[in-house]
């Protein structure tokens, strides 16, 4: 393979170009890139014609050693979690079927959150995963952990620049959040692509806020539940183990996929996914509303464990109404004077 080149993934009758691959790119990093394009998780991917001396290469193998030529077509076998869930879904005409997704998720989360086998995995990540701090963490600040894809930008749509796919009000949101929170970016992809995405979005060197550190897919763990099968999740316990000043009391995570915070359901807020940027850029105000929520709970709440983040919009509305009521009382008083 050339020093910087690309290949093509054939899957489900479509072709997906994977560009800017280097000789040093590992198979694991390639799978992470394929996951971004197809939503097929790395552990479900089978690359039929990827061979090294007749054998399937290890994830640590770099592509330069395999000798892929530019434009080489790899055939992918694998299913997305959505397709698997659809195939396993009970028919609509079955009797006594309880279709309560929220209840199932909460039940699964509680079981997984307290399972010793997964707590042991977290301890291993705490011991082995290396965090490179980009900026010093500050005393008496809370922590905000953010996903990237479909949370901060639409990674699937086509555009001439990353800015066109950036979620509206991203920099205002991060600027306002930084006043009360140390900010961490955690994405289910490789560190190289996190760094590149943050650079393209103008996040890495913005003068109005600072990112504490990035975390990639290597900090995640795999968990199994009867309802979802094997899934990769982002356990906040990895951060809490390395930085004891942060805990469920002062940490909140945003992600468009609820299962990512299965190990810490009380600390996760599922953000509405930002897709089709060209159609939705003019009307998406999610980050503005969430900035209001983050400010409100940072000021008014000493323990985030008392909050139900699923009701964040109601919380913000109540605070807004309360503020409006106080404002009206002050105006009436002023008018009487």
From TrEMBL:
<protein>
    <recommendedName>
        <fullName>Ubiquitin-like domain-containing CTD phosphatase 1</fullName>
        <ecNumber>3.1.3.16</ecNumber>
    </recommendedName>
</protein>
<dbReference type="InterPro" id="IPR023214">
    <property type="entry name" value="HAD_sf"/>
</dbReference>
<dbReference type="GO" id="GO:0046872">
    <property type="term" value="F:metal ion binding"/>
</dbReference>
<keyword id="KW-0539">Nucleus</keyword>
<dbReference type="GO" id="GO:0005634">
    <property type="term" value="C:nucleus"/>
</dbReference>
<keyword id="KW-0460">Magnesium</keyword>
<keyword id="KW-0904">Protein phosphatase</keyword>
<dbReference type="InterPro" id="IPR011943">
    <property type="entry name" value="HAD-SF_hydro_IIID"/>
</dbReference>
<dbReference type="InterPro" id="IPR029071">
    <property type="entry name" value="Ubiquitin-like_domsf"/>
</dbReference>
<dbReference type="InterPro" id="IPR051658">
    <property type="entry name" value="UBLCP1"/>
</dbReference>
<feature type="domain" description="FCP1 homology">
    <location>
        <begin position="137"/>
        <end position="297"/>
    </location>
</feature>
<dbReference type="Pfam" id="PF03031">
    <property type="entry name" value="NIF"/>
</dbReference>
<keyword id="KW-0479">Metal-binding</keyword>
<dbReference type="InterPro" id="IPR004274">
    <property type="entry name" value="FCP1_dom"/>
</dbReference>
<dbReference type="Pfam" id="PF00240">
    <property type="entry name" value="ubiquitin"/>
</dbReference>
<dbReference type="InterPro" id="IPR000626">
    <property type="entry name" value="Ubiquitin-like_dom"/>
</dbReference>
<dbReference type="InterPro" id="IPR036412">
    <property type="entry name" value="HAD-like_sf"/>
</dbReference>
<dbReference type="GO" id="GO:0004722">
    <property type="term" value="F:protein serine/threonine phosphatase activity"/>
</dbReference>
<feature type="domain" description="Ubiquitin-like">
    <location>
        <begin position="20"/>
        <end position="77"/>
    </location>
</feature>
<keyword id="KW-0378">Hydrolase</keyword>
<dbReference type="GO" id="GO:0090364">
    <property type="term" value="P:regulation of proteasome assembly"/>
</dbReference>
<feature type="region of interest" description="Disordered">
    <location>
        <begin position="315"/>
        <end position="337"/>
    </location>
</feature>
